[in-house]
């Protein structure tokens, strides 16, 4: 299974969970997911300046909407900043 196929499965799973907004910072390991998200007609992608900001915004969005709050970060330092 190719990287793009995996990204499509992830994005469709996010959409099927009722998520309308995704927060995060692109990085080498998640670029395919960000590409797929940016092309999705019903999910808004918010690119943040720091992973902690993305996590806080996703948490707030989840509390406000009652839907899952989604934050995506790359491996290594990106995940460490969450």
Automatic annotation (TrEMBL):
Signal sequence region = none
One Pfam family linked to the record: TPP_enzyme_N
Q: Which GO terms describe its cellular component?
A: acetolactate synthase complex
Where are the membrane-spanning stretches? none
Return one Gene Ontology term, BP aspect: L-valine biosynthetic process
Example GO molecular function: acetolactate synthase activity
Q: Which SUPFAM superfamilies match?
A: Thiamin diphosphate-binding fold (THDP-binding)
Instruction: State the superkingdom.
Output: Eukaryota
Coiled-coil features, chain-numbered ranges: none
Q: Where is the Thiamine pyrophosphate enzyme N-terminal TPP-binding domain?
A: 5-81
**Do you know which PANTHER family this protein is assigned to?**
ACETOLACTATE SYNTHASE, THIAMINE PYROPHOSPHATE ENZYMES
So what family is this one in?
Belongs to the TPP enzyme family.
Protein's UniProt name: Thiamine pyrophosphate enzyme N-terminal TPP-binding domain-containing protein
What species is this protein from?
A: Pseudocercospora eumusae
